[in-house]
Write a structure and sequence with these properties.
The chain is mainly alpha-helical and 126 residues long. It has one domain (4-92). Helices cover 33% and strands 4% of the residues. The protein contains four helices and two strands; from the N terminus they run ββαααα. It has helices at 24-34, 56-67, 79-92, 120-123; strands at residues 15-17, 22-23. The protein has a two-stranded antiparallel ribbon with strand order 1-2. The longest helix has 14 residues, at 79-92. The chain is globular. Bound molecules: FE2/S2 (inorganic) cluster. Residues 17-19, 49-55, 98 line the site of FE2/S2 (inorganic) cluster.
Length: 126
């Protein structure tokens, strides 16, 4: 019996939903096992697509491939380019907020009275 993992695309281990760290492989498995009727049901796969919204068109594309009978739905996009485009999307889309803990959410505002660390004048050499 052959190892089914050998059939996976090389990019399957990359995160498709960066907000919730959902890999392309997990979305593909969800599609295969759950056979959802609507692309939006992919949110049941670890919350994919419910953060900033960037990955939704890609999830929809994988869903469409699954509906068309593609055995290993995937998207053809370099992982670094995918993340770079997402960063640009987050910059351009005011309502697109990644969830806390996603690693790229805005840092929390400083709390008044808490130590903010050394001032820049204290760090720079004279
Ligand atoms: S990358 Fe999937 S919701 Fe943000």
């Amino acid at each position: 019996m052959s190892d089914p993992n050998q059939l996976l695309h090389v990019h399957d281990e990359e995160e498709l939903c960066v907000c919730f760290h959902v890999k392309r492989r997990q979305i593909a498995k969800f599609l295969r096992l759950e056979n959802p009727r609507h692309a939006s049901q992919c949110s049941e796969c670890y919350g994919a697509g419910t953060g900033c919204g960037w990955c939704i068109p890609f999830i929809e594309k994988m869903f469409e491939q699954h509906q068309a009978g593609v055995e290993h739905p995937d998207i053809e996009l370099d992982p670094q380019e995918y993340r770079a485009r997402r960063k640009d999307y987050l910059r351009r889309t005011p309502g697109a907020k990644p969830p806390p803990g996603s690693g790229d959410a805005d840092p929390p505002p400083p709390v008044p009275g808490e130590d903010d660390g050394p001032l820049i004048d204290e760090i720079l050499p004279e």
